[in-house]
Design brief:
Number of domains of chain A: 2
Structural class of chain B: mainly alpha
Helix content of chain B: 55-70%
Largest interface: A-B, 59 and 54 residues
Structural class of chain A: alpha/beta
CATH superfamily of the largest domain in chain B: MetI-like
CATH architecture of the largest domain in chain B: Orthogonal Bundle
Radius of gyration of chain A: 24 Å
Distance between the termini of chain A: 70 Å
CATH topology of the largest domain in chain B: MetI-like fold
Helix content of chain A: 40-55%
Strand content of chain A: 15-25%
Largest sheet of chain B: 3 strands, antiparallel
Oligomer: heterodimer
Number of helices of chain B: 18
Order of helices and strands of chain A: HEHEHEHEHEEHEHHHEHEHEHEHHHH
Strand content of chain B: 5-15%
Largest sheet of chain A: 9 strands, mixed
Number of helices of chain A: 16
Number of strands of chain A: 11
Low-confidence stretches of chain A: 19-30
C-alpha cells in the first residue's frame, strides 16, 4: 500500500541520516573549523558584528559567527577548553574576573590576549517632550535604592519613602519617580549599579565607611534596587524602552549610548552632574557613567583558525576603532590615542594576560 | 383558576430565553474580542512592515576609473580593489560644489557602505566595463531610507537628526532630479543578516529554518508514528505502558528551554556535534515535537473504528497486515495534521536554540546541515534588539514572513484533513 511505502521511505531516510550523523559528528569535531567563532556580551555584539561583516566582505575569509550570550555566559563557553568546538573569542562588557581567568587556566586555556575596544556610556534618557532635568548620582541613588538613609540624618536605612523627584531635591520637578531599566541579568544593569548606585551611596560618609568595614552590608544597600513600581524592569530590549519613553514623557530610561545616538529625534540624554551624555563628553571622560568594553582571544587558536590574525588586525585598525572609524558611527566611544596605540601593539605582539593582573 | 403545569413552564420561558440570548451575546463578544486583538496585531505589524518591502535607491553614473582600480586582469586582486572609491567618486561628481573633507564625508555617507560590493560584483561579472560609465541604482544608507519613507521627520532641529541640513539639501536635489527612488527590496529576500539595515536580508534565516525543519521532519515523524503504532496496536496494557504514556503527556508540556539544555548536554557536549548547526537544532526540535506527534498519532489510530480491525483479522490478516494495510492509511491524515502542527510550533521556537548557539550573527547563507545558521524567530529577536531605526520595519517584515509560513503550514494541515479524513 501507499502508506507503507511512504513509511519505508521515511524510515530508510531517517536511518541513513542518523547513521551519517553519528558517523560524521566525530569527523566534524576533529576537522578544522573554517570560520571564527565569537561569543559574549550583548553590549559588544553590535560592534563586533560590524567588524565581522566588514571582515567577511573584504578579507576573503568566511564571516565570523557571533553569538550574543551575555558576558558571563560567554566566558563560560570561552573557558571551556582548547579545540575547534570551543569559541575563539569572548566579548565582554566588563573586565574578565579573576575567577573566570582561573577557570580558563584549569581547562587548559592558558594564553589569553586581552583587548580593550573602547567605551560605552550608560545614559539616563527621557522623551524630547519633557524638559531636561539635571540630576546627580546621589539623587539617582536616593530615587532608586530599595533602602535609603533615614531622611532625618541618622545612620540607618529605611524603606525608600520618596515618591516624586521633588521629595528628593526641592529643585527637581514634582513628577512621579518612574525609571525603566534593564533586569538583573543584564550587563548594563551591573554597570549601572557599579557606576551610579555605588558612587551615589558613597556620598553618604557612613555608607562609604561600610565599603571597607562591612562589604556585604554596603552591597545590600547599594545593589538592591526598589521593587515598589518606581523602577520598572523593561527587559533586555532597549528599543522597547525608547518606545515607552516616547509614549510617557515623565518617565526615564536606562540604556546604552548607541540607542540615544540612533534615536536623537525622540529622546534626550539627562545631564548627570551637569554633563550631558554626548559622544565628546564620554570620550574625554567628563561624563562619569561610562564603562570600557573588551574582548578576549584564545591564543592557542590564532594559528589554527583561518583569518584570526586578520580579524584582530581589522578590529584594531584605525578605520574600525579610530576617532572617525565605522565603530564610532555605531555609537562606540573610541579610546584616547595613546591607549589605542598600546592595545594595538598588544594585538600585534599577542601580549599574554596573566590572572594575577586582574 | 388553578395553575396548570403549562403555565408554570410559560412563566419560566421568558427567563430561559433571556439566559440563552445572553449566553449567545457572551459568545459573540468573546469571538469579537479575540478577532479585534488579532486584527490589531496584524494591522500594527502590517503598517510597520509594508515599508520594509521597498528600499530607497540612488542612481549613480559609475565611472570605472582604471586609475583607481589598477590591474583589472587579475581576478584575485580585483576582489580587494578600491571599489568604495569608485562609488564615492561618482557621487562626488554629481555635486561638484562639495569640496571640504568633512562635507565630502557627509555626502558619501548618503550611499550605503555596501553599495561598493554591488559595483564590485557587477564589474567582476563584466570586466570589459573598465573605462566605461554605467548608470546604476545603488542602495541608499539606512538614514536616507528612513527619511524618504517618512519614519524620520525633516522638521526637527538639526542637532537631533541623524542627517544634517547639508545632507537634507543634497537629498532634496537628488529627489528633484529623479535620482532617488523607492524600489522593490530584493535584498531583503536574497541575503543573510547584516548590521546595516539596508543590506540585511531574511534569506539566511529562512534557509536555516528550512534545514532545521527538514531534520525535524525526518526524525520526528517516523519515530513518532512508529512509537504511536507500537503503543496503540501492539503493546500490552500494563503498568509500564501506563508510565510511558504519562511521561509522554508530561513531556508535551515541558517548557522548550529544557529541551535546549538537554540538546546542549547530549548533542554538543557528549556527541561533540558542531555548535549553531541546523542539524543539532533539528534534533532538539525533534525531541520537542515528538510528544506532540505521538499523542496526535495515537488519537488518530484510536479514531479508526474497531470494525475495520475485526474485518481484517476476520479474513485472515496478521496483526501487522491489519495495521499497515487497513488502520494506518485511515489514520494517516490525522497523523500528518499532528505532525504539521508540531512542526509549526517548532518553527516559531527560539528558546531551545539559544542553548545550542543558533542565536548568533551569521552573514553567510547556510548551504548545508552543519553550516552555522540561525532561524526565523531568532532573526526577529536579534533585529528587534538592534539600535538602528531601520531594523524596526525589518523586524515587522520578518514577523510577516514567519506568519506567512505558519499560516501556510496550518492551512496545509486543514486541507489534508478535509481531503483525506473519513468520518464514521
Amino acid at each position: 500500500m501507499k502508506g507503507k511505502k511512504i513509511f519505508a521511505g521515511l524510515g530508510v531516510a531517517a536511518a541513513l541520516t542518523f547513521g551519517a550523523i553519528t558517523f560524521n559528528s566525530n569527523a566534524i569535531a576533529d576537522s578544522a573549523r573554517d570560520y571564527i567563532s565569537v561569543v559574549g556580551s550583548s553590549t559588544v555584539y553590535p560592534f563586533a558584528t560590524v567588524v565581522a561583516e566588514q571582515f567577511g566582505k573584504t578579507a576573503g575569509f568566511k564571516t565570523p559567527k557571533i553569538e550574543s550570550t551575555g558576558t558571563g555566559g560567554g566566558m563560560k563557553l570561552f573557558c571551556g577548553g582548547v579545540g575547534v568546538q570551543h569559541p575563539d573569542i569572548a566579548n565582554a562588557s566588563r573586565r574578565m574576573k579573576k575567577s573566570e581567568c582561573e577557570m580558563c587556566d584549569k581547562n587548559g586555556v592558558k594564553d589569553i590576549l586581552e583587548v580593550k575596544i573602547g567605551y560605552d556610556g550608560i545614559v539616563l534618557g527621557a522623551s524630547k517632550k519633557s524638559s531636561a532635568m539635571n540630576i546627580t548620582r546621589k539623587e539617582l541613588f536616593l530615587a532608586l535604592a530599595a533602602n535609603v538613609p533615614e531622611p532625618g540624618g541618622a545612620e540607618s536605612v529605611v524603606p525608600n519613602p520618596y515618591k516624586t523627584w521633588k521629595d528628593i531635591n526641592p529643585s527637581l520637578p514634582a513628577n512621579k519617580i518612574e525609571v525603566l531599566g534593564p533586569p538583573p541579568t543584564s550587563g548594563t544593569r551591573d554597570a549601572f549599579v557599579e557606576l551610579v548606585m555605588e558612587v551615589g551611596g558613597s556620598e553618604f560618609a557612613w555608607i562609604k565607611a561600610l565599603e571597607k568595614a562591612d562589604k556585604d552590608k554596603f552591597k545590600s544597600i547599594c545593589h538592591t534596587i526598589r521593587e515598589d513600581g518606581a523602577y520598572i524592569e523593561a527587559g533586555e530590549n532597549d528599543n522597547l524602552i525608547v518606545q515607552k519613553l516616547d509614549a510617557n514623557p515623565s518617565a526615564f530610561g536606562i540604556f546604552g549610548f548607541s540607542f540615544l545616538d540612533q534615536n536623537g529625534d525622540k529622546i534626550q540624554g539627562t545631564p548627570v552632574e551637569g554633563v550631558v551624555p554626548t559622544f565628546e563628553a564620554i570620550a574625554d571622560g567628563k561624563y562619569s557613567v561610562s564603562r570600557p568594553l573588551y574582548f578576549y582571544v584564545k591564543k592557542a587558536h590564532v594559528d589554527v583558525i583561518p583569518g584570526m590574525k586578520e580579524y584582530l588586525k581589522e578590529f584594531a585598525s584605525e578605520k574600525a576603532w579610530g576617532e572617525d572609524g565605522y565603530l564610532s558611527e555605531k555609537g562606540l566611544i573610541p579610546m584616547p590615542d595613546d591607549e589605542r596605540k598600546s592595545f594595538s601593539k598588544d594585538v600585534q605582539t599577542l601580549k599574554n594576560l596573566s590572572c594575577g593582573d586582574l | 383558576m388553578s395553575e396548570t403545569n403549562i403555565d408554570i413552564v410559560k412563566q419560566g420561558l421568558e427567563k430561559r430565553y433571556g439566559a440563552e440570548k445572553r449566553f449567545r451575546i457572551y459568545g459573540v463578544c468573546a469571538i469579537a474580542a479575540s478577532l479585534i486583538f488579532l486584527a490589531f496585531l496584524f494591522i500594527s505589524i502590517g503598517t510597520n512592515a509594508y515599508t520594509a518591502f521597498q528600499q530607497t535607491f540612488i542612481r549613480l553614473s559609475v565611472y570605472f576609473d582604471p586609475e583607481i582600480l589598477g590591474d583589472t586582469t587579475n581576478k584575485e586582486s580585483l576582489a580587494s580593489a578600491n571599489f568604495p572609491a569608485v562609488v564615492k567618486q561618482s557621487l562626488l561628481k554629481m555635486f561638484p560644489e562639495v569640496q571640504s573633507r568633512s562635507e565630502k564625508k557627509q555626502l558619501t555617507s548618503l550611499i550605503s557602505s555596501g553599495a561598493s560590493y554591488y559595483v564590485r560584483d557587477m564589474f567582476i561579472e563584466n570586466p570589459a566595463l573598465v573605462g566605461e560609465t554605467v548608470q546604476v541604482w545603488l542602495p541608499a544608507d539606512d538614514d536616507v531610507d528612513m527619511l524618504i519613507k517618512g519614519h524620520v521627520e525633516r522638521g526637527v532641529e538639526e542637532g537631533e537628526r541623524r542627517l544634517n541640513n547639508n545632507q537634507l539639501g543634497w537629498i532634496e536635489k537628488l529627489e528633484k532630479d529623479g535620482n532617488i527612488e523607492k524600489r522593490f527590496n530584493k535584498i531583503f529576500f536574497t541575503t543573510g543578516d547584516s548590521r546595516e539595515p539596508e543590506l540585511a536580508g531574511i534569506f539566511g534565516a529562512v534557509s536555516g529554518s528550512f534545514f532545521t525543519m527538514i531534520v525535524t521532519l525526518l526524525f520526528s515523524f517516523p519515530i513518532g508514528v512508529a512509537a504511536a503504532i507500537y503503543l496503540e496496536e501492539f503493546a500490552k496494557k500494563n503498568r509500564w505502558t501506563d508510565i510511558i504514556e504519562v511521561n509522554i503527556n508530561n513531556l508535551a508540556a515541558v517548557p522548550s528551554i529544557v529541551f535546549g539544555l538537554l540538546g546542549l548536554a547530549v548533542f554538543l557536549n557528549f556527541f561533540g556535534m558542531p555548535r549553531s548547526a541546523p542539524l543539532v537544532g533539528g534534533l532538539v526540535m525533534t525531541l520537542m515535537t515528538l510528544p506532540v506527534i505521538i499523542i496526535a498519532s495515537r488519537a488518530a489510530l484510536k479514531s479508526v473504528p474497531p470494525s475495520i480491525r475485526e474485518a481484517a483479522l476476520g479474513v485472515g490478516a496478521s496483526q501487522m497486515q491489519m495495521v499497515f494495510h487497513h488502520v494506518l492509511p485511515l489514520a494517516l491524515p490525522g497523523m500528518l495534521t499532528g505532525a504539521i502542527i508540531g512542526m509549526a510550533r517548532a518553527l516559531g521556537e527560539t528558546a531551545p536554540l539559544l542553548m545550542i548557539g543558533m542565536v548568533a550573527f551569521i552573514v553567510d547563507v547556510p548551504s548545508g546541515f552543519t553550516d552555522p545558521a540561525t532561524a526565523l524567530p531568532v532573526q526577529i529577536f536579534l533585529w528587534a534588539d538592534s539600535p538602528e531605526r531601520g531594523f524596526l520595519e525589518k523586524t515587522s517584515a520578518a514577523i510577516m514572513v514567519l506568519l506567512t509560513f505558519l499560516i501556510a503550514m496550518n492551512a496545509l494541515a486543514v486541507i489534508l484533513r478535509k481531503k483525506f479524513e473519513k468520518r464514521w
